[in-house]
Specification:
heterodimer; A: 400 residues; alpha+beta; Butyryl-Coa Dehydrogenase, subunit A, domain 1; Butyryl-CoA Dehydrogenase, subunit A, domain 2; Butyryl-CoA Dehydrogenase, subunit A, domain 3; 3 domains; B: 378 residues; four-stranded mixed sheet; 12 helices; oxidoreductase (chain B); flavin adenine dinucleotide binding (chain B); AcylCoA_DH/ox_N_sf (chain B); Acyl-CoA dehydrogenase (chain B)
């Protein structure tokens, strides 16, 4: 039975009150704006503690089954929580690869045993998950992944290198795409999917320093690493199919995520308020006609993205280009984010040349850092250019 | 107050049904051959087809049942405009709908019922507004004297050739006023057709000099000013809806060509230099469509509020630019063929130039959006 509007409103008030009471105080160090920016133990512990509190209050994984730590209620409740979390500007729920990608995957296609073993730890934040898809030589061309997994008794021996492993140095588990059959006729059919432990000998996750100067990703080396054979998800050769399903969750094209904020949404309104006191030619910045027109275009883009997200749920308005709104979601939001943040840096006059660490940098260099970090969204999970190919081929039907 | 404070988007069953019917009707009755057949025709549309549209109740869709209308809201006309745009179907429907909205919003007096009833019965009507090409100008020299005789001309009057009624924007006691003029009141030669860039459309200069108004034909008072503001915004929105439909059809035409044309041994649609701009256009259209139906969600029978104004202006700015982009690339991506009159790309690029100017171009609306969004949010 569906919840009534009255129930939902009451629930929203309850969530809002809880968030107001429990929103953590400013820790005094820079908090990650997304799960891809967790660079220090200090940040990690802070976010782990927060996620646990959210789950413990019953506000995470609300639509996941009760027996695996979820709430067993309709997804609409979690949506309300997420909206309220955004409104209250609370920290992110950092275990995103578990909450948003691996979790829904296990929930939808995993065995009972896998669900029992993994889901609860994802929600509590105890078990951090990372993803081993991209390789140094195979980023966008994921189907060509070369990391090898060779069956040896009740183990697989893994050799190869993964890269852009978010929180690889903190993770307990990895969703791993590896090649079990190098001789398969189609390269895709040689791939298998593993729910692999990270803390085994032969796995070495080395932090990568990003353009921001900070950390958040690792390059992950497998050298004769032995993982239990029961880590294999599905059957050998199904890896590509399962990986594609995972990417659907990652790109927001399919529902099932546990909820919680994966990133702090940087809104144009924040930028406008932040820059309101700036001047240009000695006049208030917001009186400058060129700046005004640019800002209006950005506001329109942000609003269009929000409206397109809504329209995607209205069937009668989605018949022209089926899945267009779903498949373009990532491209829209990530590219908009990049342009908007770059513009915000550009508006700062000479201060736009300052960076995190300079006492005079506006908001501690927030926009500079946010602009750089945004590339993780236009590159990660399939670059914008690959996204454009996907939309061209799957929505418009253009040839490969 | 935030710069984005309203993202309502709803679409009711009536809207869905009307959109469905309109799309089927326009697709069947206005294939591209039929569109081309009207390009040289004086009125630019098939009168039998217009009568079918009247039969569907479209001119009176948003008029009260008391004058023969359907009693639905103006938001229900949005899907029809989009469907017509998709099929490049002209006809005076949009002009007529807007003229009726302007009058109905300007006064509730019974003396305009005859006009509204005519509209609902399918007599085309249009608003004679502009005296110069500037949509932001409030120049108004088309005035009537103490004995009710009009002097002055209006330019860019849409569908003037077909109109049975003109709603002339004039002034009375320093305030905007409207004058209802029947086509048969015009002296011979008063209508001088423009040659339009979009050959599916019609417009003319209309000289109203010498027309004798009866007191009943003059609508004055402060409500006229409010109604005119609504009229501008509804005009922008219906044009946006129409442009969104045209942009979709234009993109489809381009994509179809890219799927069939081979060069260097490959379908040209496989080249990313052509693929990616098509995706950009698709996303621009998706945005336009979202703005259009967001704006439709916010329309009321009463005067439009701030959020509705923002929505209508965004819809027009977005849809106009999306169609310009789609039309421009349609010509380019058809290669040499695209440069010919025979290629349908010309129909869309011409429509794009026309649409983008109606009720103000994107710059016009963004300038007003800047004031609405950046000056009041403090």
């Amino acid at each position: 039975m569906s919840a009534t509007e009255q129930e939902l409103n009451a629930f929203r008030q309850q969530v809002s009150a809880w968030l107001a009471d429990n929103k953590p105080a400013d820790p005094g160090f820079l908090l990650p704006q997304s799960f891809m920016e967790v660079g220090t133990e200090q940040q990690l512990e802070f976010l782990r503690e927060w996620q646990y509190r959210v789950w413990n209050a019953g506000y995470l994984g609300m639509a996941w089954p009760k027996e695996y730590g979820g709430g067993g209620v309709e997804p609409v409740f979690q949506s309300i929580v997420d909206q309220e979390m955004r409104r209250h500007a609370v920290p992110i729920c950092f275990n995103v690869i578990g909450l948003g990608w691996a979790g829904p995957l296990i929930n939808h296609i995993g065995s009972e045993e896998e669900k029992a073993r993994y889901l609860k730890g994802i929600l509590t934040g105890e078990d951090i998950w990372c993803q081993g898809f991209s390789e140094p030589d195979h980023g966008s061309d994921l189907g060509n992944a070369q990391t090898r997994a060779v069956r040896d008794g009740d183990e697989y021996i893994v050799n190869g290198t993964k890269i852009w492993t978010t929180m690889g140095n903190f993770a307990k588990y990895m969703i791993l795409l590896a090649r079990t059959n190098p001789n398969a006729e189609r390269k895709y059919d040689g791939l298998s999917f593993f729910l692999s432990p990270m803390q085994v000998p032969g796995i070495d996750a080395r932090p990568i320093r990003k353009i921001t100067g900070e950390y958040g990703f690792t390059e992950t080396f497998f050298t004769d690493a032995r993982i239990p054979a029961d880590c294999l998800m599905g059957a050998e050769g199904q890896g590509w199919k399962i990986a594609m399903q995972t990417l659907q969750y990652e790109r927001g094209a399919e529902a099932g995520a546990a909820g919680g904020l994966a990133f702090v949404r940087v809104l144009i309104n924040d930028m406008i308020e932040e820059l309101r006191d700036m001047t240009r030619d000695g006049e208030p910045l917001l009186r400058d006609p060129v700046v005004r027109d640019q800002l209006v275009q950005l506001i329109m883009e942000e609003k269009a993205n929000a409206l397109c997200e809504k329209r995607g749920a209205i069937q009668a308005l989605g018949t022209d280009y089926p899945f267009s709104l779903q498949l373009s979601h990532k491209l829209r939001f990530s590219e908009y984010g990049r342009r908007m943040r770059q513009f915000a840096v550009g508006l700062q006059g000479a201060a736009g040349g300052l960076y995190v660490g300079d006492a005079q940098a506006r908001q501690g260099g927030f926009w500079q850092r946010a602009y750089f970090n945004n590339f993780s969204t236009t590159i990660g999970g399939g670059t914008s250019q690959v996204q454009a190919n996907i939309i061209a081929e799957h929505v418009l039907g253009l040839p490969k | 107050m935030t710069v984005i404070n309203n993202t309502s988007l709803a679409f009711d069953e009536d809207q869905a049904m009307i959109l469905d019917v309109a799309r089927d009707f326009c697709r069947e009755r206005s294939p591209i051959g039929a569109v081309r057949a009207q390009l040289d025709a004086p009125l630019g549309y098939d009168q039998a087809l217009w009568q079918e549209m009247v039969g569907l109740g479209w001119p009176g869709l948003a008029l009260p049942e008391s004058v023969g209308g359907s009693g639905l809201g103006i938001r229900h006309a949005v899907g029809i405009a989009e469907a017509m745009g998709r099929a490049l179907l002209g006809t005076p429907l949009i002009s007529t709908t807007l003229a009726a909205q302007l009058v109905a919003r300007a006064t509730a007096e019974e003396r305009v019922d005859a006009f509204l009833a005519d509209v609902a019965a399918g007599v085309p009507a249009t608003v004679a507004l502009l005296e110069n090409p500037d949509w932001g100008s409030d120049q108004c020299q088309c005035l009537f004297d103490e004995s009710g005789v009009l002097q002055g001309a209006k330019h860019f009057v849409p569908d003037a050739q077909a109109a049975g009624w003109f709603v002339v924007v004039t002034r009375h006691r320093e305030l905007p006023a409207l004058a209802l003029v029947r086509a048969d009141q015009l002296p011979a030669g008063a209508i001088v057709p423009h040659t339009l860039i979009d050959e599916t459309k019609r417009a003319a200069t209309v000289d109203f000099s010498g027309v004798q108004l009866t007191p009943d034909a003059i609508i004055a008072g402060e409500q006229v000013t409010v109604a005119l503001c609504d009229f501008y915004l509804l005009g922008a929105l219906l044009t946006a809806a129409e442009a969104t439909g045209s942009a979709g059809a234009c993109l489809d035409t381009t994509v179809e060509y890219l799927k069939t044309r081979k060069q260097f041994g490959k379908l040209i649609g496989s080249y990313q230099a052509l693929k990616h701009p098509c995706v950009d256009i698709l996303m621009a259209i998706d945005s336009a469509r979202s703005f259009v139906y967001h704006a439709a969600t916010l329309l009321e029978d009463g005067s439009l509020g701030r959020d509705a104004e923002i929505a209508c202006r965004m819809a027009k700015a977005q849809a106009g630019d999306a169609l310009l982009q789609a039309g421009d690339r349609a010509v380019q991506f058809h290669g040499g063929m695209g440069f010919t009159y025979e290629c349908d790309a010309q129909l869309y690029i011409r429509r794009a130039q026309w649409s983008s100017q109606q009720f103000g171009d994107a710059l016009h609306h963004r300038k007003r959006l800047a004031a609405l969004l950046l000056d009041t949010a403090a």
